[in-house]
Amino acid sequence: MPRLTDATKAARRAQIIEAAISCFLEKGYTNTSMSDIIKASGLSSGSIYSHFSGKEDILITAINERLNNVKELYETLPEGAGPQDILETIHTNQLVNDNFSAMLRIRAGSLHAPEIARATADTMPLLQGIIVKTLTPWAAEQLSVLHEINPNSAQRTPEQEALIADYARDTADAFMMVFQGYMLRSFFGAPEEKDRLYRVALALLPE
């Protein structure tokens, strides 16, 4: 049997992950078996187990890949992008929207599954770290306008740098609370309400 190329291996892994996500969304994580994933993927059990040890491994990989997608999206934002810019970027990116929605549905459908808790334990801190990094230049600009810090970064005191870090962190937390509320409300609301809910969420965030 010929050896698989790296591209083929990556395609197989993606195929398995997408099949697993479809099963998780349809049946819930807890009620999905590896047999379900094997059947949905159209691959052999040997092929799947050569890539993943089980469904928890697949879930963790899926979450990490989606976090990387978010990180890559944030890296396209211009320096100084604020909370509204981040929300607008997410709202207009269908892939990221779908990923967030899928993860929310899987989490909501298996609230008490210990595997879900383990797989998502680091998600919020990692996501917050990405947002804090994105918002730090914006936080510095905002505090400079308010004359609370020196606009020249080379002349800032450690106390001023700490003020920037705190403001970026607090704003990131506020963003995450608004964003999660928006996604949750959109998830349980009618599809035609999504644009209105987006405008409401946008109005709650600083520019």
UniProtKB/TrEMBL annotation:
Keywords carried by this UniProt record: DNA-binding
Record-linked SUPFAM superfamilies: Homeodomain-like
UniProt-listed Pfam families: TetR_N
Molecular function via GO: DNA-binding transcription factor activity; transcription cis-regulatory region binding
DNA-binding region coordinates: 33-52
Residues of the HTH tetR-type domain: 10-70
Protein name per its UniProtKB record: Transcriptional regulator
Lineage: Bacteria, Bacillati, Actinomycetota, Actinomycetes, Micrococcales
